[in-house]
Amino acid sequence: MAGLSAMEKKLAEFKCNTNEAIQLKLVRFPEDLEDDSTTFNPEYSHQVFGDDEVAFGYKGLKILLYYNAGNLSTLFRIKYTSKVNENFDCVEADDVESKIRKIIPPGFCTSTDDFVSLLEKEVNFKPFGTLLHTYSVHNEEAGEDITYQIYQADMTCPGFREYHERLQTFLMWFIETASFIDVDDERWNYFLVQMLILPPFQGEGHGAQLFETVHRYYMSSPTVLDITAEDPSENYVKLRDFVLVKLCQDLPCFSPEKLMQGFSQEMVTEAQQKLKINKQHTRRVYEILRLRATDMGDPEQSRGYRLDVKKRLIGPYKKKQRELAKMRRCLRPEELTNQLNQIDLNMQHEQLEESFQQLVSDYRRVLERLAQA
Ligand SMILES: CC(C)(COP(=O)(O)OP(=O)(O)OC[C@H]1O[C@@H](n2cnc3c(N)ncnc32)[C@H](O)[C@@H]1OP(=O)(O)O)[C@@H](O)C(=O)NCCC(=O)NCCS
């Protein structure tokens, strides 16, 4: 046993967390290659390395995936300080290289010199497609405003298909349930499938700029009725709330007087017709704007708000209760204990209050951001 655990201990040293081992970088100048401050790591690597996000067989594993910040030509290198030896250790190291090769398109560089010479050649890179929006963001470090542009491109733009293949790998690293998009699937154009701002640029307002630009782009298309995302992440919902509230706040249907009268068909119709916002999203916008118009220090106003929001939140619980009532009718008493019902009801009150408090705190954050915009 002692021998086994010593062996286990030894082998454990050859396990590397792949979220740490994978090192990503957007390179503009050759000196960026040696600058650790520009390196960032994935949030997820389970789709490539399994749920444990571990690669076995190496000590000090580094999987370098460096990209030219313009057209994303890629440098892929694997480094490690030591590796298990099949003959000596009787175990085989994971084939990290082939796992990565499966998710990056061919044509990448394996030598730093080749990559650097490409950097120089591709210095005049221009984004693909049509320019939709230009804006600037103040950069503290540089002490100046930096201009950014948002382009719209599709597979008919020469070179974009190959660029998109290189770009897609990032989805694996930053979207938990990401899957590669089949660009030949016609339906691709009908869904806003995934949205990603790379970590070095997060928290600077680019997400909001991008969301608003995409929304305005589809808003102006006569064939689009609704703009929505499938299975949105928490951060995405925050971003959407902020942008939709910003777009809606000046609509006449959201005047403070109308907000205090409750959610109305007028709001649904106006938001749908003018901004292509669906009923569910309009309801959230209403709740956020009503919170702004409500004096939460006033017991009556605050009670009115709480009841109105909770009435919506309770919808799914009511459904559950109806199901429970149905079960009660169908099951014998010994199959459905009173105790079970009781637990369930207590849970509902607590959960409802918790959901309400969480929601209000999320809404307050949106309003704070709105006040700063
Ligand atoms: C979700 C995502 C797109 C947001 O992009 P982003 O560019 O970071 O978004 P923004 O910068 O507009 O807003 C993010 C936060 O930064 C804050 N912020 C924006 N500009 C800022 C500035 N100049 N200074 C300080 N903070 C700022 C915002 O207030 C917001 O904070 P909050 O969440 O506390 O309200 C991005 O985090 C991402 O790609 N995540 C991984 C993939 C993902 O989840 N995609 C969505 C589902 S497909």
From TrEMBL:
GO terms for molecular function: histone acetyltransferase activity; histone binding. The record marks 188 as: Interaction with histone H4 N-terminus. GO terms for cellular component: chromosome, telomeric region; mitochondrion; nuclear matrix. Residues 15-176 form the Histone acetyl transferase HAT1 N-terminal domain. It is found in: Mitochondrion; Nucleus matrix. Its EC number is 2.3.1.48. The active site is at residue 230. It holds the Pfam family Hat1_N. Its main location: mitochondrion. Residues 240-291 form the Histone acetyltransferase type B catalytic subunit C-terminal domain. It comes from the Eukaryota. It is an enzyme of class 2 (transferase). Keywords: Acetylation, Acyltransferase, Mitochondrion, Nucleus, Phosphoprotein, Transferase. It catalyses: L-lysyl-[protein] + acetyl-CoA = N(6)-acetyl-L-lysyl-[protein] + CoA + H(+). Residues 51-53 are annotated as: Interaction with histone H4 N-terminus. PANTHER family: HISTONE ACETYLTRANSFERASE TYPE B CATALYTIC SUBUNIT (PTHR12046). Belongs to the HAT1 family. Catalytic subunit of the type B histone acetyltransferase (HAT) complex, composed of RBBP7 and HAT1. Interacts with histones H4 and H2A. The interaction is dependent of the ability of RBBP7 to bind to the N-terminus of histones. Component of the histone H3.1 and H3.3 complexes. This is Histone acetyltransferase type B catalytic subunit. It comes from Terrapene triunguis (Three-toed box turtle).
